[in-house]
Design a protein that fits this description.
There is one protein chain. By secondary structure, the protein is of the alpha/beta class. It is 43% helix and 19% strand.
């Protein structure tokens, strides 16, 4: 999770939304990414999507774990389900409930670490940039 938090901080330092993600296989990080919607002017470049894109074509995702600083939204949860990622570990879901039930209904194990560090990073961002946050979660 610390690598995902580092990715979130990187995104924030670039002027983006502080959400980070890493993909782990066999105990090693094989992909990492952060929300780059603002930086790349992309409506879909969420942290998890950026991470999966950076992991590349690995064949099967069935023995991977996706870490994200925030509970994945339906877009990212759809990718988790589509690629049969069996486990998602999140930093928090207090600031955004996301699509936990959707993933669990498709057999994905979801673990919420409920980390104060992730919550405080998102709360500070949401307070400072509610416009970007609302655009990111589609409530504009």
């Amino acid at each position: 999770m610390s690598a995902a938090i580092d990715e979130a901080r990187k995104g924030l330092s670039e002027g983006g939304i502080p959400i980070g993600s890493v993909l782990v296989k066999g105990g090693k990080i094989i992909g990492r990414g952060h929300n780059r919607r603002v930086q790349e002017e992309s409506p879909i470049l969420h942290a998890e999507i950026d991470c999966l894109r950076n992991a590349g074509r690995i064949g099967s995702f069935r023995d991977t774990t996706l870490y994200s600083t925030l509970m994945p939204c339906f877009l990212c949860a759809g990718a988790v389900v589509q690629f049969n990622i069996p486990k998602v570990v999140v930093g928090e879901c207090r600031t955004f409930a996301g699509a936990r039930e959707f993933m669990e209904s498709h057999g994905v194990q979801v673990v919420d670490m409920d980390l104060d560090e992730c919550v405080s990073m998102m709360e500070a961002f949401i307070a400072a940039r509610p416009d970007l946050w609302n655009e990111d979660i589609g409530t504009v």
